[in-house]
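User: Thanks for the earlier help. One more: HEAT repeat domain-containing protein. Can you show the sequence and predicted structure together?

Assistant: Of course, both are below.
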Amino acid sequence: MSEPAPPPEKKEPKEPEQQNQDGEQHEPEERKASNLGRELAARAAQPGTVQDRLDTEADAISSFASAKVRAENVAGGDMHIYYQAVSETEDAPRLMRLQPADLAEAEELFVAPTGFAALREAMATGRVVFVRADADRGKFMTARRLLLGCPAVFRLDPQTRPAALTADTLIKGGGYILADLPGATARELTAYEVAKLTAVLEECDARLVVTLVTGRRLTDPEVAALVMDLGEVTDRVEVIYRHLRKSLDGEAIDRIFDNAELMALVQEELSRDASPRHAAILAQFAAEASQAGGSLFDAVRERLGLRSDSDFQDWAEGLPDLPTQSMALAVAVLGGEPYETVAAAAYRLQRGLEPETPLESAERPRLAPLAGGKSQRLRKLRAHVTPSTVQTWHGGAPTQAVRYRDEGFQRKYLLYFWNEYDEARPRLLNWLRLCATHELESVRVRAAVATGVLAVQSFDNVRATVIRPWAESDEPDLRDAAARALRTAGETDPDLRAPIRNLVHAWSADASPALQATAARSWRIEYAAAGAGAALKALEKLSSSEDLDVTMAVCNSITEMWEIEGERLEAPATLLAWLDDRGRKPAARLAFLLTAADLVRKVDGVIWPALLYIATCDPVRHREIAALWRDAVTAPRLHPYAKTVLAEWAHAVNDRPHACRSLALLLATVAEEPRSATIVAHEAAKWAKGTRRAPTASVEVLRLISPESRRP
């Protein structure tokens, strides 16, 4: 049977100009729909900006923590962890769900230590395993390996009390890691508490691995008897090999192992430090040297030398001039950005740091040669450039990103500059403000993170002179930077979390729309302290504001939360409830459309609109998201932009049969009411032609919403 032809186009019923279909006056966002419409159209045409922003923030923070996040971190290495509370109760456990890359690392890179079979047997027959070993001996890697069979694995905040793990806080079948048990908890832990915890884990079919450093003693002898010591990884060369194959082909790996001089250096290093962590670092240095070309031995030896604190001090004090110092600071703050962007920012910093001099003495001789070039500058800085991608409104563009060869230099030099150069400190803060309003969002994000790192060093000073003025600014970029700086400071220093949370609560209750908007953009502080539900409630308190900046801040924060939480977030039900409240209806519509336009999910190589994928996987979410679309396509003034986003969805899934069918099923639910059915049919017919064609999606949708398909 042939597919039904699209019906002839007919004019869609006009929306009332002054009232919506319910007789309500236009809402705040509808009176400024042109600006909002342009933003929605831009996000729909180039989705994924929220994920790019969150990835940049994670990269910036992990760089200052001297480690890379997720798959890039070496086995046994430190990770910068962001825990969130599972509920609003005071003693609720805080945890972080491990990503697929974290678990894949445990499968691909793990080399079994002696005695691992006994650990695996204990995990298979019990619910709690205690593992003890020296630092950097692979405890966390081992814990991940033991829990690979669990459908989800979580890392608990080290301060978690075992009594806080109840059936209400655990996920069915989940695996949990309580790493490096603190001394106080170890001393207070009793056999009764372990037995009670085992029963809870049994009830939830969950498992827990508790790790302890060597020397940590458990007071209760029955608990102490449960501790199993982690054996040595005897084949450290295998650790190196497994890390090398992450990034190099077989020929490159052979060249490394065939290099006698380099392997002698490796053996010397392993005799000094035999930990898996150190073996992984050696592999990382060798891989980077292989990719850069040149002498493998010299490059690895140089990288090892950079790890010395005295070497860093000598290097920092020996930077020859202000241009080099400025570039060093720019790389510390903006490492990971394109070289040209960082160099331009460094020149701006240099101009701000230069002392005032008479014009004649400042002028360079007219025939003087140009100063040292890029290669010479990078050598002085001990930095390098690597292939990368910069995001633009027209998509990703290839570029060369600059970073220090030793990641520890980023944090070290930023703090060195802050602590050593008193007179330059105010100018540094002024330069960070300029970077926080840069045209590239990634630059703005990195500047805000660097400000948060400095806030840990001098919180009252940075809060009063930088963060508060940013929070009160009329510029949304500066308000976002203030929120991001606070979040970075709170996650870096646990002692700052409570005062920062109180500060954000005060801003939320303030009469200033700017401070309210900044409080809304600081949602991750409440999220980390009390969970997603509490963060949504905090945003709900601000969602009835008539100030457009506050509304947009609420909507952008909901979009970020939806990106992180995915189908777990009760955002659809929350937004539907807001639609029944006239004061919150603008925020509900904008939050939904911004999320629909921007969020994407990659599944088995196919890029889905994230909300479409969520609706496909969950029948409840399917009906909720359909109801939100039904409202959006009939919303006064905003409906043209909703239809633009919907057309982008159709274009995105047109060549993907499963996703295309899912879109048709969702829109069939949207079309259950006559008015929305007319609109969906009208829009679907237009997808068959135009510059953003989606003919397959058009036919599929029209087939499902046709009157014939709806007959019993």
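User: Great, one quick takeaway?

Assistant: DSSP finds 37 helices and eleven strands in the chain.
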